[in-house]
């Protein structure tokens, strides 16, 4: 019998760096090029047992996409606590919730792996498109299991193999050419198979583990939109390690690469979404 796959720490992922980078990305995080994040949040929230939940926790909420969807589903029957380490993201999330008229969400500055909540506090804990950015994924998931009630649900969404290819491979290859260290697997690919997602939940002691996969495809109009996607997401991390004197040169070279992929419909983005969930045993 082969051993289940393991999730390795990514030594480049530092919480303070992640928080600062995502704060800088917050203004563009809800833009149309990053539609795959909205699709992931929808798919995840649709899988959650919100009809029997009174209090849920959204980890790494970003600009609040999943939190708002969950709050809308729960209406007056429950409340959402949403946490993130990036103050810029939390500010945007609060603005988005206010615009949506949601009053049953509270946003808190907190780390995904060191929560200030009591044991067995929440009916459901979820994380939309953020788990692969965490430095120590098993440690974080164990913390989520701690705060969820027995028989409660822990769930997350991630992205499958082929996500945003071949653009991501071109982006990372060119960064390497410019001397930027890229740790393999890069964050986006740390949980990109059913087996890896199952392993994380099984290792945390969850039962009734379930994996769902959906495929979303859309087009962006130009290489400029691809650059906006990179700069407005976690993909900006390695770009921020590029020597600034080469930044304009790199952007021009990468735009030229991406432009070669354009068709009359634009540049195609393929987005396989994985939703993984499990229950805390009694």
Poorly predicted regions: none
Biggest beta-sheet profile? 7 strands, mixed
Shape: globular
Number of strands: 7
Beta fraction of the residues?
Answer: 15-25%
Strand order of the largest sheet: 3-2-1-4-5-7-6
C-alpha-based Rg, rounded:
18 Å
As a percent range, the share of helical residues equals 25-40%
Instruction: Give, in order, the helices and strands.
Output: HHEHEHEEHEHHEHHHE
Query: What structural category characterises the helix and strand content?
Result: alpha/beta
* Whole-number mean pLDDT: 93
Number of helices: 10
Task: Describe this protein's structure.
The mean pLDDT is 93. The protein is 37% helix and 22% strand. The chain has 10 helices and 7 strands. The chain is of the alpha/beta class and 282 residues long. It has a 7-stranded mixed beta sheet with strand order 3-2-1-4-5-7-6, with helices on both faces. Helix 6 runs antiparallel to helix 10 (247-259) and helix 8 crosses helix 10.
């Amino acid at each position: 019998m082969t051993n289940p796959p393991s999730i390795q720490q990514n030594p480049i992922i530092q919480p303070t760096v992640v928080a600062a980078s995502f704060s800088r990305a917050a203004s563009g995080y809800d833009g149309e090029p990053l539609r795959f994040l909205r699709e992931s949040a929808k798919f995840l929230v649709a899988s959650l047992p919100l009809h029997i939940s009174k209090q849920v926790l959204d980890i790494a909420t970003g600009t609040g996409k999943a939190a708002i969807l969950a709050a809308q589903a729960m209406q007056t029957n429950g409340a959402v606590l949403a946490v993130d380490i990036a103050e810029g993201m939390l500010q945007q999330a609060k603005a988005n919730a206010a615009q949506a008229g949601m009053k049953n969400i509270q946003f808190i500055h907190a780390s995904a792996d060191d929560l200030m909540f009591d044991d067995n506090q929440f009916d459901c804990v979820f994380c939309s498109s953020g788990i692969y950015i965490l430095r120590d994924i098993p440690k974080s998931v164990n913390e989520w299991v701690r705060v969820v009630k027995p028989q409660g649900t822990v769930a997350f969404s991630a992205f499958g193999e082929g996500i945003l290819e071949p653009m991501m491979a071109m982006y990372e290859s060119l960064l390497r050419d410019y001397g930027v260290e890229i740790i393999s697997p890069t964050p986006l690919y740390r949980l990109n198979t059913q087996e890896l997602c199952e392993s994380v939940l099984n290792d945390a002691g969850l039962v009734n583990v379930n994996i769902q996969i959906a495929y979303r495809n859309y087009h962006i109009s130009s290489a400029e939109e691809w650059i906006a996607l990179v700069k407005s997401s976690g993909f900006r991390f390695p770009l921020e390690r590029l020597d600034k004197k080469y930044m304009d040169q790199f952007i021009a070279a990468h735009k030229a690469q991406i432009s070669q992929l354009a068709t009359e419909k634009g540049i195609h983005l393929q987005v396989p979404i994985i939703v993984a969930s499990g229950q805390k045993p009694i």
